[in-house]
Each structure stands twice: as structure tokens, then as C-alpha cells.
Protein: Rieske 2Fe-2S family protein
Organism: Halosaccharopolyspora lacisalsi
Amino acid sequence: MTTTESSQSLMPTLAGHYYTDPAIFALEQSRIFETQWFCAVRSADIAEPGTYRTVQIGRESVLVSRGRRGEINAFLNVCRHRGARLCTEQQGQVKRSFQCPYHAWTYGLDGKLIAAPNLTDMPDVDRGELGLHHLAVREWLGYAWVCLADDPPSFEDTVVADVAERLGGAEEIGAYDVASLSLGTRITYDVKANWKQIIENFMECYHCATIHPELTEVLPEFADGFAAQYYVGHGAEFGDDVQGFTVDGSEGAERLPGVGEHQNRRYYAMTVKPQVFINLVPDHVVFHRMFPLAPDRTLIECDWLYHPDVVASGTDLSRSVELFDRVNRQDFDACERCQLAMDSRSYAAGGVLVPSEHHIGAFHEWVRTRIGEETRSHDRAS
Amino acid sequence: MTTTESSQSLMPTLAGHYYTDPAIFALEQSRIFETQWFCAVRSADIAEPGTYRTVQIGRESVLVSRGRRGEINAFLNVCRHRGARLCTEQQGQVKRSFQCPYHAWTYGLDGKLIAAPNLTDMPDVDRGELGLHHLAVREWLGYAWVCLADDPPSFEDTVVADVAERLGGAEEIGAYDVASLSLGTRITYDVKANWKQIIENFMECYHCATIHPELTEVLPEFADGFAAQYYVGHGAEFGDDVQGFTVDGSEGAERLPGVGEHQNRRYYAMTVKPQVFINLVPDHVVFHRMFPLAPDRTLIECDWLYHPDVVASGTDLSRSVELFDRVNRQDFDACERCQLAMDSRSYAAGGVLVPSEHHIGAFHEWVRTRIGEETRSHDRAS
Amino acid sequence: MTTTESSQSLMPTLAGHYYTDPAIFALEQSRIFETQWFCAVRSADIAEPGTYRTVQIGRESVLVSRGRRGEINAFLNVCRHRGARLCTEQQGQVKRSFQCPYHAWTYGLDGKLIAAPNLTDMPDVDRGELGLHHLAVREWLGYAWVCLADDPPSFEDTVVADVAERLGGAEEIGAYDVASLSLGTRITYDVKANWKQIIENFMECYHCATIHPELTEVLPEFADGFAAQYYVGHGAEFGDDVQGFTVDGSEGAERLPGVGEHQNRRYYAMTVKPQVFINLVPDHVVFHRMFPLAPDRTLIECDWLYHPDVVASGTDLSRSVELFDRVNRQDFDACERCQLAMDSRSYAAGGVLVPSEHHIGAFHEWVRTRIGEETRSHDRAS
């Protein structure tokens, strides 16, 4: 990369194989998705005891469900007897227990083995040792975050810190009381691109003028190419004649009760590594969770969250939803186009980041450090 | 697996990767399916000289056909000249020879090279060296068993011994004169599970109460979880009010002529390693052949065999067939559910076998010994 | 291969894994398709400045387009900024430049970086270093031949030499003035076979009597099994009652103006390594380009070329096209049938070449030398 050495303006990206190599993806699964806090399920989706969702985290199918005392539990979705997948549906509800449909081993909502055929004839069996594998769970912002590590990292130093670093303080997001909001719409996108393409795309706005006509209409400063994520504590200001964060700039819903004057008519965005992207506007929150399934495939679940009264009243949210739905589709098309060429010799040493993209370099460094490729990274820089 | 060490009741299973690792499957292909006797084709399916079937055995397409003197031959299904697949159909009939459709090299029904264009201009060519690759064949129970090994193991010490070990003597199966029976129905199942899942499922009945309501109705003792294969020489007895081995317990066909009084109203089952499962009831035989195609895919051909008079008379066999067809579907659903979770860290060291499943451990040991993984097995146990 | 040692008539082929092993295919991509001259695009398909085609060469998507001064350029189809695929369509036309649809980096038709958002704010960026990656291009016979090597081999010593070696002089093909011809018909075939199967098939005629009834009717000598490619400078003669190179031997178009008397009523064929097959008959040319996509998949684009007046007049070419279209389909069926069995132990050491196929051995040696497997080849021969 002689180019990057001859220029202050340009920084190198990750090399192309980071986006295609199954060995790199395997490292990301074992050392990122299976060790960091992973935003798995919206808490309200499993409101009643016995309701559950199954989600893919790294290489594991994870069963996230509501317990009898209202707590959320997460388990590896595998029977301890002969390894049958316990729940095969994406969501459902059980009464008091999870029963394996193969040999009827039965687990309480807390994961404990409570019954199995002929179990009374095996007095030496320690039921305590044969419960479902428990995983760490934290609730925040109305979502259940799961960690597959035996010794999870500090939630505050990772998840909360990512929000704080971007907003200039974690308390800033408190104003939106995200956990209290209701789901207006959810759209799931199946994208043929590596998860890092999608993260990088979210982080920069150098592409906004080219592919996001509606967004730059609402947020004129985005036409200059500097993303909200480029700054600390910066909210992009609505255009003068824009009334709301909608596809045509028409009025949105009422401002959320806690949103301060300095946050009004502004758009904030942040990435929570490794797989969450949150967007805050005065009247709603757009919350993305990414589920990396393969080196070249990522599922994205995007929630549009509003004040419960707005959702309950049946207000027409279509123009509000359409704005970011269009932005998503425009972005994911671009990501898929990049994915196609990651194997080219032209990208073997990577490409370049312009100044308004330089902060992506920190994300690249974070990935390399996590998967233990620091040395290679240093080699390249020298 | 500290669990298994602390309990007499529980034995360990194979580790999960045995069911998913392509390297393990490759070993199973080369060291099990391509070295043991493999039950390939029902003899009656190739009754006339020149009729043939092609079947997949391990990594090879095998051509099994009836010769001019009525003998059955098996060949690698490959032309010796430029390697074209000789027969691409699953079944067919030729007159006197197999002719390669590419360059017309022509082989007799005995596999000898008998003609090729311009062959007379190549006097130095030894036709004897250029015949089709012959494979060992044995007929037993009305099926052609093929062995791809250069030096096949003793048929008696493997195939026959497996039957004898289960029934307490090979002569017991003689009473059913399986070779004399006619095909009533054949159903082929395409199952997304490792072949060993299917073998293990056939071997135990701990799941019967949970997934086989019709079967446990007919064979009430199965509700206790002990399979016929758990014992030696044991036939599971029909329920008192059961008249036949049918989906609703209604009357079946007449008892087969040779079936003795001690075998009447009883169900016997046996596994012939590596890929056959035979079920004997007084009026018919259900004969499964498994064709492992991939670590997570197995084709199963299941034959319902009856006395020739029964088939010839057009007797309604639907209730008789429906019983085991339902059992098959129930079993294969369970196997597919297990296959899904074999990759989980929760099953990385395997699961557990309860007492009524302990005999599966011998099958696991047999697999490990065949593929040369004894050492690893001993390591795990210590 | 004791067979081949005991016989002068039989020579060994490549071993079966040469046709299935992804590692061999990777070597062929990097050391053959990405280093040799590759016949990529028919020049007339990109007649106007700004018209382009995208083609797969080895592992690369290549953009071949007409420049402003009428020259043909070839580039790696990848933006230098973040690696987006520049053109995703198989063909198209731009006005003055290629603009990346992600961040609007813009390249001239000559590949130079001419604009990018905020580029003026990065005065230290050397645009000259950030142009599209240029590839070597040569036009010959009306086609653009592209070479991905930094230091391409001599076009004359490879492409032209292959033609000359077969015809006994490169000037022989001049008589057909191939570059002046017009496209009558193009048919694309998607073949489930390794590219070498297809080359080998084109090189020999031992199969002609078996699978090409129409062709041997028109060229009776082909029934003896000796291909035009077996000889130097030999054209296969039309049958006495054959009037033209058509599916039924009926009259074709008028003889091409430059075709000499010694070339009349004759069929010439040649392979230009690695991926072109050219057929010359008095009134037209059949030109095959192969695009190897996977060890077991090759795309073949076949052009039927006629005198411009013939195409312009709307003459019915169907019987002329049908002859080689049938030949193609017959050949590709045979290639697919061979591909099926390349993995068999029966072909692990390869098969045999009869005398009329011996010249294929030189192609095998060429492949082995290119991919650096000479040693293994010598080992096998000793």
C-alpha cells in the first residue's frame, strides 16, 4: 500500500480476505460473537412466563425465554441427553417447562432438569448437573443481551461504554427511555454481505450524498459526508424546512417526553459493538440487531420504536418507517456490491479510507485485536 | 464429562463432531462402507440377465447386475478408457453388454472388455487388464451384499454374526425364509441426519413412549423403554387385544409358513452393521437399507416383504405398511432434530446414554475401532 | 498403471483428481487463466466508446470496454476506494466515465481517477496511483484477448503459435479474415464438467463415430476416429455428396472470399490454449470461448461467424448452426458423464489414451508444467 504511505488523507482498510475467509469468520464467531455481549431479543417479545425466542449467536442456537418470576433466561438450545434441538421454532410459548420431543427429558423454565422417563430408576444421577447450559443475560434499553462467555466482560465497560463514547455520556440516551417504547414496525433484511461491511457502512456518511437522497434531504449536513458517528456527542440537525424524521420531511409523532431541547430536531447514531446500531430522533428510535450467519451473509432485524401512546393510537407511521427502510435498502445494496469484489487481487491489500471515514480504522483495529491478529496488523503498518 | 464419571446409570455418547465432521465421514466411507459388506440391491430387482441397478457405496457408484448364468456381479461404474460413468440411470436393462456411450468400449455382463473401436489395431493391448473393476458379491436374505475391499472380511463373522448375536442364533431368521418373500411396498426416505443417528435410533426404545404412540399400542412393553435390540433372542410381545402388526392393531396377513409358535405374536429387530435394519413379525418383514450420502444426509430404502401369495392376491397391505411408515417418519424427524445440534458446544463432549441405551455404546466403540480412533476414545475414558 | 507400461498403444491420462480437486483448480486459475492470454470478448460486442462487457477470468471479474479513441481497455472490475464491484451487469454502456455507485469515485474510460467527493480537500492524494487496475489487451481475429499477468507472455509465441502449429502456418487462418466476419448466432452452454474434459474432447475424434452421427455424415473420415487436430495442416474433407457444412449436408453460404482452393470443402479445427476452440469451414467459422468457473463447471460461449453480407441478407442459417450446436450438446453430455466418475478409485491413476488420442498427452504435459506439477508427472512416468 504505497498509496497510504504517501498520503496523510488516506488510511488503509482491512484486507479483502477479512470479509471472505471462513477461517477469519470462525475466529470472529469464537472470539467476538461468543465472547462479547450480544443483543439477542427484544424483552417485550417474550413478555409472559414461558414465552421464548430462539436466536443464532455465533455458532450456537440460543433459547431466550421468560422465567416464572419474570426474569429472562438464556440457554444453549440443546437437550443434555442425546443432543436434540430443544425448540426448533423461532418463537413460541410453553406452559411450565421445556420438554424434549425425542425422549421427553423435561427442563423447568429455569433450565433445571425436572423429569425424565425412568429417572427414578437412576438414583445416582445428579439432576443438577444435567440442566440446560445457562448463559449470562443482561437487560438494557428493553433488550436482552446475552453473553456466551464463561466469564463475561463488564457490560458497563463494553456495551454502555460504546453508547457513552459516542454520545459523550451514557446518560444522554436515558432521555429517550428506550426500554419504555413500543414496537411500531419490525423489518428483517437478509443481506449477502459480511457483517463488517454493514458496520462500516453505518459508521460513515461519505456515501450519503450518493445513495441516500431522502436522508440528505432531511439531514442536509450529511451531504458533506461527515456522519454523526464521526463526532462525539453530535446530533445531525434537521433541515430548516423539515418537520420530522420522515421520508418526505413531513411531521412525525410528538417529541418523546424526556427528550431535551438540545436533542430536539437532531439525529444521533451509534454502533454498539459487535452488532447493534441505534438511531435516536426526537419522536422515535430505530434499533438494528445484526445476526452474522456466514462470511457473506448477515440477517438484520430492525425495530422502529415509538411512545406506547403513539402505537396504541394507531397513528400512521408509514412515512416515518419508510425513511429508514429506504436508507437500509440503499445501504445493504452497497454492502452486497462490495462483498462481490473482496476476493479480487485489486483488494488483496484492502482499499483506502478518506478523512471522513478514518474513524472506521478504530473498528478495524478492534476486530483485529479481538481475533488475535494484532501482529499481522502491526506488520502491515510497518 | 464429569457427569458420566459420577454415575453408573449414565454412559457417554460419541462427541458431537462425529456426526458433522467431513473428515470423520471420509474415514467412515473409506474404512467402513468401502470395507464392510454393504447390502446394496434386492436380488429380485435384477431378476433377468442384463438388468442392473446403480447404487452409491461409500464414495463409489456401483453397478450391480445379473449375469448370463444368473449370477449377480458388481462393478465400479466407470469405463476403463477415459473414465465415463457407464450407467447413469438408477436401474435399467441391457441385452448382452454394457457399452460406454462415449467411445463405445464394450464390456460383457461379466465385466470383460469385449470390444472397442480400432482395438484390433492395438495388438499389444491386454483386454484382460482392461475389464471393469470387479467387486465381491454375496447373496443372502434375498439381497445382494457387496464389498469394495480387495480382501473382504468373512461374511459369516460380520453380517451373519450380527443377526445371530441378536436373535441368539442365525437359524432363527431362517424361519421367515426372507429370500422367498415378495416386495409389497418400498418407500425411500431422504433424511437430513448422519447415518449413525439413524442406527442409534433404531437400537433403542427409550424414545418409544414419547414419539411412537401406534407402535407402543401394538407392543405395550415398548412403553417401558427397552428395545427388542436390548436383549438377546427377545421378541416383543403383541398386546393382548392386538390382532396383527398394523397401524390400528387389526388383523394382518397369515403367519409365514416357517414361523414357529415361539415367534408368533412377537416382533424381533436387529441391526446388521453398518447399514441394515431388519424387523421380523409373523406375517411380514420390514427391511431397511441405509445409503449414507453426506455427514448430514442419509437415504433410506425400506422394503415391506410378504409371502408371495399375499402380494399376488392383491391383499390390502395399507394398514400393515402404515404402521412402520409412521414409525420411520417419527424416528427420522427425531434424528434430524438431533443432527441440528451436534455442532453445539453443549454437545462437544457428547451426551449421555441411560441404562436402556447402554448397548449403543458397543456400536460407538465399533465405529471408533473401524475408523482408527481407538486412542482418542481411550483418552476420553481416562 | 501397469497396463500402460505393457503396451505401446496406450498412454496414461491425467489422474482423476486433476478434474475435481479444488487445489488443482486454484493452481490452474492462478497459473494458467490469470497468466496466459485469455480470449475474453468479441470486439464487435463493444463497438462504441463506453460500451463494456464484464467477464470472469480466473478468480477475477474483468471489465472490458471501448475507450474514447476506439481502443479496447481491460480493468479489474473493482473500485480502488472501498472495493465495490464497479459494474455488475454483463454488458452495458456509460457515457464518459465509470462511476462507483457507492461513494461516486469516478474513473475515465482509460481507467484514470478523475473525480471523487471531497477529493479537492485531499491535496496529498496522487490520483495517478488510484486509477483502475489496468490489464494487458490484444485484439486478434476480432476478439479482445486479455492477460492478467504483470509481464504477459509473447502473444505470438503462445496464441498465434497454437494456431500456426495446428494449421502448419499462421497465415493459413488469414484466408478466412475472421476479424471481418459478423456474428450469425451465439449460444451459451453451462456445462457441469471440468474445462480440461472439454478441451480433451475437442482434441480427439475417437468418439465421433459413437456420438456424432451428423458430423461423421458430413466428414466421413471422422468415422475412423482421427481428428483434424491429430494432424498438422490437415483439413477433414467433406463427403462426396455433401454440399455444405450443415446438419443435413445441404448447401451452406457462399465460400468466404479469401478461402483458397486447397481449403475448400474442408474442415479445420484448432485449440488455442487455454480456452479457445476454433473451427474453420469454407463459408463460416465456429469460435468457442470457455470460461472455467469451478472444478466441475465451465461456461462456453460459442459464436457462429459469417460473411457480413450473409448475415445482413437474413439468409437462413439454421441448418448451418444446428450442425455444430448438436455436436456441442453431444460433446458436453459426454464430458459431464466423465466428470461424474473422476472421483472413483477406478480412475485414481487415470485412464488410457488410444493412439488416435495420444496428442492429448501433450496438453496434459502443458497443464502439469504450468501448474508446477512437473515433478509429480515425472514420478508417474518413471
User: Anything to note?
Assistant: Residues 318-341 of chain B form the longest helix (24 residues). Chain B has two domains: 38-140, 168-357. The domain at 168-357 of chain B is CATH 3.90.380.10 (Naphthalene 1,2-dioxygenase Alpha Subunit; Chain A, domain 1). The longest strand of chain B covers residues 284-294.
